[in-house]
Specification:
Blueprint lengths: L3 H4 L16 E3 L2 E3 L12 E4 L13 H11 L3 E5 L4 H13 L2 E10 L11 H6 L7 E7 L9 H18 L2 E4 L10 H11 L4 E6 H8 L5 H6 L4 E6 L24 H11 L5 E4 L7 H14 L4
Parallel strand pairs: 3-4, 3-10, 4-5, 5-6, 6-7, 7-8, 8-9, 9-10
Antiparallel strand pairs: 1-2
Amino acid sequence: MRNVDRIAGSGIMACGIFAACAAVAVGGEFSAPKGESCQWSPPFYAFCVEVGVPGIKPRSLAEQASLLRELGFDGGGYSLWFGDEAARNLKILDEAGLEVYLLHTVINLKDADHPYDPRLPTAIEKLKGRPATVSVLFTGLPAGDPQGMEPAVKILRELGDLAAAVGLRISIYNHVNNWAESLPFVLKVVEKADHPRVGANFNLCHCLKVDGEKDYRPLLRENCSKIFAVTLCGAQVGSKTWTNGLIQPLDKGDFDNRELLTVLREAGYQGPIGLMCYGVPDDTREHLTRSIQIWRSWQPK
């Protein structure tokens, strides 16, 4: 069942409207204050499953969708599909009873004439009626290069208008070694774009890699309405590597994801939560099972 209004709303997530239902972390669980029945249970999806793992042959999308549904995930996140592939893959997910929550694509700020795939507008239109966020990775310029601001803002406004026409949202993907690698910088770009359908990602592993020494909590609290997508994972704070470091199943690492979820809930975040799986070398079924069991143990009771 699609519930676009719940995820997208008017394009700006309602922050603070659940203040009376702010979470309290107790023994690793999230519960509403005494006397309140409100529960916070965001959709939980898997992102980049079997991607970036040397020596592994990824399952087909149909096989992966079947596994995710069996284990209890609400959906998945993938690279954006173009052409006939989009219709085929969306049908596969529909038949599995899964949503697509995040689709990412690349924008080259150095290519003034053709910064993105010309099929992108059509690909966005085909997602109409789905709770999807199209996330853009900015390439072509060094991180934070001021030359990128004007073209990035122009492109984001164009894509924001396309997304608004079909009820979707556009987010900037904070990614190490991309133009928009730092979340504080991403939020400045969002502010410059000044479009209700343009927001930011909070990708835990990349935030830890770039700004791991900074306190992320004030940034999330102050910018809730601009955060359109969140991905988390088990992570070892201070690690410089992805595999077995900044990207692990939820039962590993020492980063406090429960506190992160509490901050998101208190801020009124209403989007989905993605499980980053890039480069996880463990058996796919086994590590996804461990992560979703941990996720369920964190939910309100």
